[in-house]
């Protein structure tokens, strides 16, 4: 053990740290003590990084972790002022923590799924192809077969003498092949019928119908010629080889496009050469047969069959964006067919079945007598009454039927597994590889089977019947092997896009495959050639680099941009920050822009920090994507720009000395921003001082997050603008859409592009989500331009019985209701806690303009304000936009934990949902005409839902009565009386008593009925045991349990929610009877009732303790003299000095209050001096001039109305020049929209620089005096230093001068 190194070689910042280092410094080999950083050769300590992230960068930490190098812990902890304070407690995010075994289990499960899907696709495709060739080989009229007799021991057979085949031996093979062809057509018919019935599909034109009819008929004829005429004439090995040459038309179309590109644009020449070779390889199959097999009958028929079969996939190789005119013309036809595909498929699916049946009759008549097709042997007859020969051919018929079933089933499994692999993005290994190797695997298996059959005539005798086997000739020459190699390589090149095509997240079948179904007889070819070819759009990273450089230099891309700066020269306009990309590169206009908009009120710290951490995670993800594109030259198709806005309702309160100041919840949010950043980045991060701005609606705080994205906190003053969530949404939609897009940008074409690629993520003040969940919503929006909104899976969190109930309620609502709405029509409600909205949809006619309507009629209060998210969704649906549900986009939000809060929440939701659904049903003709996803049948479904919602309480009440009758053995009339008494009593209480009495009775009734339901459960279980599961009650209960259990198994991550079904069952009377009455009878109550809204509405102090409430009852109330004189409401100033004068000291005026009084006097003196020097100019609030950073915002025209011109493009009509929409202003707000404060006003000159210069000259002495007075208080910690950006009191009328000392020191 060596001596410890001298303590002078370590970081020493205080006596405490030195003592600690001396104690723990007994390391070996000269290593520094744990937790201390050794000084380098230059004698300097390790300092924090200059990028404000603190400590080592994340890549550096990962590198050192892998190399097991020691990482400095102090470098991440030490502060600037208190370097000795290195100890900390880092909060652990329990929700984000995953044990190691869960990660390993997830990786193992993913690997298992890769293998399972690969095996399913390969095995099912191989079996289907082998059975098709087996059935086709037995269509020939061969006269004899070799029967195999089983021996005494297992799996041993002996060949017998050949026996003749009857005439009807091939009957079931014809019908089996035809039925295998028709199964996919019937599936297409069912799918098309569902889409046409529940969604709007345009009618095709006569020209399009005729063209589609010709193409469908030709490809059906080609397939029938190949199966019923060509393959029976060939041996099975050569027939399998021939199936590699069914891509003639796709090769030809691909060649035309690539050759034109190579000749005209002088690039991709190698691709054109490969396409030429592939086409030559496919064409060689049309002529090599004549050379290799001169005895082949009907060679011209084979050429026609191959060419016509390849017509099935012509749509995948044409595009309307091609530069070659014929390809572009075919691409336009393809797009028209795609729009009307489901109506065309309903007709052509039946036609294809009929046409193939007719060709099958012709083929059977050519090879046999046509009557042979109708000579069926009984496949399931009684063997005891049959002869040995009849038993053999009955077994033959039965095996043939099973072959058809296996072909149909294996084809469907292969298609379904391939589709699933593409949707879960396992397509390369689990879809592309097995799909391509099916064909050569079939050839190899047939080679092996034929060789084994040649050696042992009873090979596979126990697997397939003796009367059926693949046709095997004496041998296949080497010429065919080489020819098959050429055909297969050309086919593989034509379908090589399945290896390079990247599947999108949550891709639908229509986006994965051109036609929505598969080919029943050639499933592998249809999966490979039908996979949609999509050329990904690449966004240049040069524009992003130029944008970052110009932003860093503070230069503007356009000289004529008119925007108000927020912070002098160092900060440019917020509107510019989101639009400057597109001002010098039009491609960047197509970048995804996400505005995260949160509505906040009086959330708890836990809820606020959860929402802030979600925003910080988005900032981290966006920053990583931007750096990857900027420095690593990575082209990220999922790149997006983001900006966060938090709209704080009721953020101001009155102060006796300062006037209107931010309340305690604003201070709480201000402090939690740094905490959220620290928790996400797992290190101490020093944010820049936030920017504070006076606005017409109150105030604004602008934070710069570590990822260089901005977080805007808008502090709404309820005395200036309307409060509540809907009006906050109106504010950010008008500001972000009306001002940022319509007012700032002048180019109409750019407005439309930006509106289509701009999204608003609406969240609540307690929402928790991951960037991956947002990306899934964005993927949905990008796939369909008609999609107006997308919502995710909401998970309620919290503690208590009520939260358990809501966990199960939310689970079944998403598993069944939202999924059903998504499939049969569209989702009716995009919840405001986590939904993504398209900007162009919100800016459309009859959406935002109607959303801003003030309630006038009684039902308006219920429909507009009680469920604002449902009201906005209804407007989008009626305008023609679709709302979709993404089950994989998970988000969490705090659910009501108390009984009263839960009841008040549902009191709002239930009437609002009913009112909006009735509004949609009342206007169903317009909704069906505008929205393709809302059909008449879907309207009928919603009518049934609303009807059962209205009569649901009566149904539940009746079921309760009869369930209790069966459980307790009491007659139904007695149980009816017992149950109707509490229901009627509660209804009367809802009419005559207050909300407190109603909720108290509902609580008591819920507990009583919970015990009754437990007794019902026990009695029902006994009844099921006695009557067995065949009784109606048992079947009903077991079927419900089976349905919920199956849904839970299909959602393994949410399976624990099924446990809370017991709580849900016990609370059925409470939630379906009493809550329905409470909601409907209290329609006149329009407040929200959640959190402390009810207490405030009743004039109660929500922060009162139990002792204080009892003091109110014991001692009389006193009015404040000042409030009594002003005629304000009665308030109470409580203290305990009159009870315990020895323990409670009298209230005294603090030093801070004395300083604010002095500040007010100084302001009055400054006001008088400036009045004398600047008389005659216009008036301006003093608090604007008190700080150069505090600039009054007066936007030019931020809230123009949004309209569409005749071409359907977004324009501004020029109206609405006011600084804020009048619909947002309260009655006390001045018409100009500018903020009115209690601060003195002065006359100034028009120039802002002159205003600042005069103010600095006049107030120099006053500022110096203020600074001297504040020195003592600041040193003692009683006043915060606003220069550090940690004080938000500068929004007050006199608090603006708190920063004066620091600025005066700098000057």
UniProtKB/TrEMBL annotation:
InterPro entries: Chitin_synth, Chs-1/2_IV_N, Nucleotide-diphossugar_trans. Residues 23-70, 1227-1246, 1270-1307 are annotated as: Disordered. CDD domains: Chitin_synth_C. Residues 1298-1307 have a biased composition (Basic and acidic residues). The keyword Repeat does not apply. It catalyses: [(1->4)-N-acetyl-beta-D-glucosaminyl](n) + UDP-N-acetyl-alpha-D-glucosamine = [(1->4)-N-acetyl-beta-D-glucosaminyl](n+1) + UDP + H(+). PANTHER family: CHITIN SYNTHASE, CHITIN SYNTHASE CHS-1. This is chitin synthase.
């Amino acid at each position: 053990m060596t001596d410890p190194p001298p303590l002078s070689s370590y970081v020493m910042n205080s006596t405490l740290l030195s003592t600690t280092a001396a104690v723990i410094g007994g390391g070996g080999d000269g290593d520094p003590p744990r937790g201390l950083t050794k000084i380098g050769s230059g004698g300097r300590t390790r300092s924090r990084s200059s990028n404000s992230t603190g400590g080592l960068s994340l890549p550096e930490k990962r590198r050192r972790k892998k190399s097991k190098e020691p990482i400095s812990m102090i470098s991440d902890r030490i502060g600037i002022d208190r370097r000795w304070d290195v100890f900390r407690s880092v909060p652990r995010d329990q929700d984000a923590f995953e044990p190691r075994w869960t990660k390993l289990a997830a990786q193992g499960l993913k690997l298992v799924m890769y293998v399972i899907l690969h095996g399913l696709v390969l095995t099912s495709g191989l079996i289907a192809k082998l059975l098709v060739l087996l059935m086709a080989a037995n269509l020939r009229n061969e006269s004899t077969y070799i029967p195999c007799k089983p021996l005494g021991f297992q799996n041993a057979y002996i060949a017998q003498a050949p026996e003749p085949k009857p005439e009807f031996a091939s009957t079931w093979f014809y019908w089996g092949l035809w039925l295998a062809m028709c199964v996919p057509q019937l599936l297409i018919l069912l799918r098309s019928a569902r889409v046409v019935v529940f969604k709007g599909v345009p009618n095709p034109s006569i020209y399009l119908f005729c063209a589609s009819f010709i193409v469908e008929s030709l490809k059906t004829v080609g397939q029938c010629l190949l199966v019923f005429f060509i393959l029976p004439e060939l041996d099975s090995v050569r027939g399998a080889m021939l199936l590699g040459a069914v891509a003639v038309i796709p090769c030809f179309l691909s060649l035309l496009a690539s050759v034109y590109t190579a000749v005209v644009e002088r690039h991709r020449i190698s691709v054109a050469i490969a396409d030429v070779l592939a086409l030559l390889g496919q064409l060689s199959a049309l002529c090599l047969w004549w050379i290799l097999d001169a005895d082949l009958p009907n060679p011209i028929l084979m050429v026609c069959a191959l060419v016509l079969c390849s017509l099935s996939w012509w749509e995948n190789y044409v595009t309307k964006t091609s530069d070659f005119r014929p390809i572009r013309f075919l691409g336009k036809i393809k797009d028209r067919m795609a729009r009307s595909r489901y109506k065309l498929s309903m007709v052509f699916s039946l036609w294809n079945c009929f046409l193939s049946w007719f060709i099958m009759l012709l083929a059977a008549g050519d090879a046999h007598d046509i009557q042979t097709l109708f000579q069926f042997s009984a496949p399931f007859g009684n063997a005891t009454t049959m002869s040995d020969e009849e038993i053999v051919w009955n077994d033959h018929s039965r095996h043939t039927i099973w072959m058809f079933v296996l072909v149909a089933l294996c084809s469907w499994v292969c298609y379904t597994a391939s589709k699933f692999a593409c949707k879960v993005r396992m397509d390369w290994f689990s879809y592309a590889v097995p799909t391509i190797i099916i064909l050569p695997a079939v050839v190899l298996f047939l080679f092996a089977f034929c060789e084994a059959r040649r050696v042992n005539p009873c090979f596979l005798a126990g697997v397939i019947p003796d009367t059926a086997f693949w046709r095997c000739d004496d041998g296949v020459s080497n010429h065919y092997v080489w020819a098959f190699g050429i055909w297969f390589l050309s086919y593989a090149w034509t379908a090589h896009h399945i290896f390079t095509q990247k599947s999108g997240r949550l891709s639908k079948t229509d986006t994965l495959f051109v036609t929505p179904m598969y080919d029943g007889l050639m499933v592998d070819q249809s999966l490979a050639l039908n996979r949609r070819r999509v050329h990904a759009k690449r966004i240049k990273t040069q524009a992003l680099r130029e944008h970052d450089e110009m932003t860093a230099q503070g230069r503007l891309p356009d000289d004529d941009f008119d925007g108000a700066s927020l912070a002098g020269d160092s900060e440019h306009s917020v509107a510019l920050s989101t639009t400057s990309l597109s001002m010098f590169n039009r491609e960047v206009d197509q970048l995804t822009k996400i505005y995260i908009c949160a509505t906040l009120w009086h959330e708890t710290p836990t809820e606020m920090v959860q929402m802030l951490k979600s925003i910080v995670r988005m900032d981290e993800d966006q920053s990583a994507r931007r750096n990857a594109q900027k420095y690593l030259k990575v082209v990220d198709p999922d790149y997006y720009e983001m900006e966060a806005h938090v709209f704080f309702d009721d953020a101001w309160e009155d102060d006796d000395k300062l006037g209107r100041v931010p309340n305690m919840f604003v201070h709480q949010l201000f402090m939690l921003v740094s905490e959220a950043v620290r928790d996400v980045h797992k290190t101490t991060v020093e944010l820049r001082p936030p920017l504070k701005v006076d606005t017409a609606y109150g105030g604004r705080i602008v934070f710069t997050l570590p990822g260089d994205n901005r977080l805007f906190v808008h502090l709404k003053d309820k005395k200036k603008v309307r409060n509540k969530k809907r009006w906050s949404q109106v504010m950010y939609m008008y500001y972000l859409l009306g001002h940022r897009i319509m007012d700032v940008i002048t180019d109409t074409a750019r407005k439309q592009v930006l509106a289509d690629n701009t999204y608003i993520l609406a969240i609540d003040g307690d929402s928790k989500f991951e960037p991956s969940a947002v990306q899934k919503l964005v993927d949905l929006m990008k796939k369909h331009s008609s999609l107006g909104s997308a919502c995710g899976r909401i998970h309620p969190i919290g503690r208590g019985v009520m939260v358990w109930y809501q966990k199960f309620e939310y689970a079944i609502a998403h598993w069944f209701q939202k999924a059903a709405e998504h499939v049969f029509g569209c989702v009716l409600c995009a919840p405001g806690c986590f939904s993504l909205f398209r900007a162009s949809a919100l800016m459309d006619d009859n959406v935002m303009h109607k959303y801003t309507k003030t309630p006038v009629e009684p039902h308006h209060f219920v429909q507009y304000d009680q469920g604002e998210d449902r009201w906005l969704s209804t407007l989008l649906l009626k305008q023609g936009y679709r709302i979709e549900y993404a089950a994989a986009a998970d988000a969490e939000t705090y659910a009501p934990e108390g009984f009263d809060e839960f009841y008040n929440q549902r009191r709002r939701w239930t009437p609002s949902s009913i009112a909006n659904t009735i509004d949609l049903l009342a206007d169903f003709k317009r909704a069906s005409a505008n929205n393709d996803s809302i059909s008449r049948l879907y309207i009928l479904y919603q009518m049934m839902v609303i009807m059962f919602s209205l009569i649901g309480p009566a149904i539940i009440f009746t079921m309760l009565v009869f369930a209790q009758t069966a459980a307790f053995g009491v007659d139904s009339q007695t149980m009816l009386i017992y149950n109707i008494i509490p229901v009627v009593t509660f209804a009367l209480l809802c009419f005559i008593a207050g909300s407190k009495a109603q909720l108290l009775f509902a609580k008591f009734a819920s507990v009583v009925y919970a015990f009754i339901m437990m007794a019902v459960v026990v009695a029902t279980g006994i009844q099921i045991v006695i009557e067995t599961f065949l009784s109606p009650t048992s079947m009903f209960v077991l079927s419900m349990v089976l349905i919920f259990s199956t849904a839970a198994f299909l959602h393994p991550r949410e399976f624990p929610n099924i446990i809370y079904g017991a709580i849900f069952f016990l609370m059925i009377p409470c939630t379906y009877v009493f809550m329905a009455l409470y909601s409907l009878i209290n329609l006149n109550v329009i407040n929200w009732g959640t959190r402390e809204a009810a207490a405030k509405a009743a004039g109660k102090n929500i922060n009162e303790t139990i002792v204080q409430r009892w003091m109110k009852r014991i001692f009389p109330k006193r009015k404040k003299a000042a409030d009594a004189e002003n005629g304000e409401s009665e308030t109470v100033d409580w203290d305990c000095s009159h009870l315990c004068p020895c323990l409670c000291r009298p209230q005294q005026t603090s030093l801070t209050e004395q300083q604010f009084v002095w500040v007010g006097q100084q302001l009055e003196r400054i006001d008088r001096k400036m009045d004398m020097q600047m008389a005659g100019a216009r008036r301006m609030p003093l608090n604007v001039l008190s700080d150069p950073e505090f600039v009054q915002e007066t936007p030019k025209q931020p809230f123009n109305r949004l309209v569409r011109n005749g071409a359907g493009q977004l324009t501004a009509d020029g109206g609405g020049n006011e600084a804020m929409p009048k619909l947002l202003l309260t009655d006390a707000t001045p018409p100009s929209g500018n903020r009115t404060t209690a601060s003195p006003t002065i006359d100034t000159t028009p120039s802002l620089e002159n205003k600042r210069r005069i103010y600095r000259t006049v107030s120099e002495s006053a500022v110096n005096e203020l600074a001297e007075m504040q020195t003592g208080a600041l040193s003692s910690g009683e006043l915060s230093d606003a220069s550090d950006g940690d004080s938000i009191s500068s929004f007050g009328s006199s608090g603006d001068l708190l920063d004066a000392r620091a600025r005066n020191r700098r000057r």
